[in-house]
Amino acid sequence: MADRRDLTVLLPVVPRQRLGRTLTARAVLSGCAVAVVSVLVTALIGLPIAARAVEREARESLTAQAQLAANLLRPRLDRGRTADEERIIRQMQTREVTAYLIRHGEADRPGLPAQVIRRIAAGQDFAGRRLVSGRPSIVVGRALPDGNGVVLATPATSGLWRQVLRTLWLPLLAGLAAGVGAGALLARRLARPIRNAATAAARLRAGDRKVRVPVESPQEAADLAYALNDLAAALATSEGRQREFLLSVSHELRTPLTAIRGYAEALADGVVAAGGAQRAGQTMLAEAEHLDRLVSDLLALARLEAADFPLVPARIDLATLVRDAAEAWGGRCATAGVVLRVSLPAEGQIPAFTDPGRIRQVVDGLLENALRILPSGAPLVLAAWAQPDAAVLEVRDGGPGLTDEDLAVAFERGALRQRYEGVRKVGSGLGLALAAGLVRRLGGTIEAGHAPEGGARFTVTLPSYETRTSA
User: Within a 10 A sphere around the Cβ of 162, how many other Cβ atoms?
Assistant: First the structure.
């Protein structure tokens, strides 16, 4: 048999396809997107608030300047326009602030709204937004006696957004950097369990059954780790059983082949006398039949597992099948000194919907297993009875029986053979596994237990009406 490494080499290698960005890249991009959205939301909420704060600050500054100008101009306005007034007005005016002087209800230059002029002339102070020379502006005016006053105006948008952005750019940049960093950390945290799982899966594929994935949060990653660890343990157990099964089957195949080869060599070398040729031929025929049964069982198991097994279920009388089996096995049981008993209900038929040939195969296999280990004088019981919507078939014996540990693995291939080889007579280790597979395919159940006669009990439950079964 080829080494596992050779089998691995023969497996088709499917080229890996890059399906897009890695989880790390996606998480970083998601973090950036969240950060950008957060920044935009912050900007939409914060910029108007900051703009109002800057505007309030500008209005307060303009109010202070207007009050200062009013205090300086109050004693001078009655003297007519003087050099002091010009100097004060020039000091008030900057690139962003325009100063207007109201004298007796008239502005010294155009552009100031008439409403502002009228209020100042009426002796009322003014503060608010108005259009000055066609531009939205913050306007602050202080009234003086005799319809006089001073008005300062600054464009409402002049430098406002620049000041707001100057105030907010650092917090916004810090939020974006924090989003990128959080996305990167989150990506590494989420990707690490997946990378560990991928590495473990690759090692499993390479044949390493001792690999285990560390279990860590979040819960989804822990579930993935548990699943891979359970898979590795199941693969190790399954391969161990397969290895033991193959060893058992190899030994079982080698035994008849050795006998056939020995007798064939003896016949070819002329060692067997003329009188012994018939005996040699009978032995070779018996071993060949043993070998044929073993190969047939292996083929049947393989076809069962491949769901390629012909089944012809029909409505039958299970009592008739039991009587036929008892008649066929009566002679063999008598020769072995085993007492074969049949237990059937007195009312007659036991309806069942099943494949009679396959169920007879199951019964023959169970009887052969029991007869192999029963001592002379031990009982062998073949029973059947009807239940609501089911028919029950049972094979019991008075042999050495099975332990509770044996019952748990009774239908696994080669399990009982491995336990009892060299202790008592054993078969190929395939019969019970084949029987269990046949019964399940027919929609029934099979159980192993302890018989009241002291040995083993095998109970087969079959449907008594047509059900959906695997073909």
Answer: 11
